[in-house]
Design a protein that fits this description.
about 325 residues; alpha/beta; Rossmann fold; 3-stranded mixed beta sheet; 11 helices; 14 strands; binds nicotinamide-adenine-dinucleotide; binds UDP-4-deoxy-4-formamido-beta-L-arabinopyranose; carbohydrate metabolism; Epimerase_deHydtase; isomerase; NAD(P)-bd_dom_sf; UDP-glucose 4-epimerase
């Protein structure tokens, strides 16, 4: 089928495009390139041997979206487009709500106008706020601690209301845990602009010598080694989860919120050790104070994804680190942004 990927040239969108093209779907990438590069379109084609259509545009341009949905005879949408830096969302809340919430409303209006009613949305484990119990299942209460997280919660609420309003809609909110890793080719991956906010790209830049050392935020959490624990999931496993969700929606109208995680947590020190092994490089680090807003531990109960979608993550931590390292080396040598 023909599938529109908003934010399709971004980190998770590009890997999902590869999985979908390789499963026989036709992908249309729609992106304003605010956090990605046009060269990703070629890179996807080099991996798949097929050229996905690309439209440069903003999801708040409803006319362009509507025309795209019609012109490409779109059957379903996967909505990745949005801003995702937690700290930036605190200093630029209006920009975050405009991009994420207003952008989603624009997309939904375009879909309504053209009769496209199947949607997979990029949500986040951040909607669980401070964990009240672990592992986190989909019934865990939701809350937000920053505008980014609140934008995801608002959107999930809007999507639930939409499904309640009409039985035509088929919507899955996929709550990602911590996506890391890259395609095995080393052609696509996460290439953040400026200083990385997230652990894995920061470690990769330390390993490549771009940065001197990693600051480990907190050594006094009530965890085995005192550092924070997260559920890191390989981006290719995550991408396959989107294909499984689309397939599920074909036969199941309604609304579902589904965790995409592995169910296993690793500490910051375990991540450093694993990356040192994968890259054969030392990762110098120092302990600093806790980062404001961080939780000690966060990992998924992934059972619902397996029960509903028949999907579970199978790639290892070593796969995550070695693919990140392969991509990082390619970036250091050749990548144009
Ligand atoms: P990304 O920044 O690499 O990709 C998002 C893409 O959306 C970028 O290519 C950007 O240019 C595009 N975009 C942003 N605003 C747009 C707009 N108004 N119109 C058109 N395009 C626009 O991020 P990602 O890591 O691939 O994340 C994809 C989605 O998954 C986001 O919605 C993010 O909030 C969500 N998510 C990401 C993570 C993570 O850790 N990476 C975790 C949970 C949820
Ligand atoms: C992981 C661990 C840090 C950087 C964020 C967003 C969340 C979601 C995923 C989108 C933590 C520690 C990190 C560093 C460190 N994104 N760390 N030094 O915080 O779980 O989640 O990304 O939805 O909304 O909040 O991921 O990669 O930033 O941190 O010690 O330089 O690494 O304290 O324990 P996080 P992260």
């Amino acid at each position: 089928m023909n599938i529109l990927l908003t934010g399709g040239t971004g980190y998770i969108g590009s890997h999902t495009a590869v999985v979908l093209e390789q499963s026989g779907h036709q992908v249309v990438l729609f992106d304003n390139l605010s956090n990605s590069s046009r060269s990703v379109v070629n890179r996807i084609a080099r991996i798949t041997g097929k050229r996905s259509a690309f439209i440069q545009g903003d999801i708040r341009d409803q006319d362009l979206l509507r025309n795209t949905l019609i012109k490409h005879d779109i059957h379903a949408v996967i909505h990745f487009a949005g801003l995702k830096a937690v700290g930036e969302s605190v200093t630029q809340p209006v920009n975050y709500y405009a991009n994420n919430v207003q952008g989603t409303i624009s997309l939904l209006q375009a879909m309504q106008a053209t009769g496209v009613t199947t949607l997979v949305f990029s949500s986040s484990a951040t909607v669980y706020g401070q964990p009240q119990y672990l592992p986190l299942d989909e019934d865990h209460p939701t809350s937000a601690t920053n505008p980014y997280g609140r934008s995801k919660l608002y959107i999930e609420g809007i999507l639930q209301d939409l499904v309640d309003s009409s039985s035509d809609w088929r919507i899955a909110c996929l709550r990602y845990f911590n996506p890391v890793g890259a395609h095995e080719s080393g052609l696509i991956g996460e290439n953040p602009q400026g200083t990385p906010n997230n652990l894995m790209p920061f470690i990769a830049q330390v390993a490549s010598g771009q940065r001197n050392e990693l600051s480990v935020f907190g050594s006094d959490y009530l965890t085995a080694d005192g550092t924070g624990i997260r559920d890191y999931i390989h981006v290719m496993d995550l991408a396959e989860g989107h294909a499984a969700a689309l397939q599920y929606l074909e036969t199941h109208p309604g609304f579902q919120a589904i965790n995409l995680g592995t169910g296993v947590g690793y500490s910051v020190l375990e991540m450093i050790k694993s990356f040192e092994h994968a890259s054969s490089r030392p990762i110098p680090y120092k302990f600093t104070v806790r980062r404001q807003g961080d939780v000690a531990e966060c990992y998924a109960n992934p059972n619902k994804a397996f029960q509903l979608l028949g999907w579970k993550a199978h790639r290892t931590l070593d796969d995550m680190c070695s693919s990140t390292w392969k991509f990082q080396q390619a970036v250091s040598e050749t990548y144009e942004i």
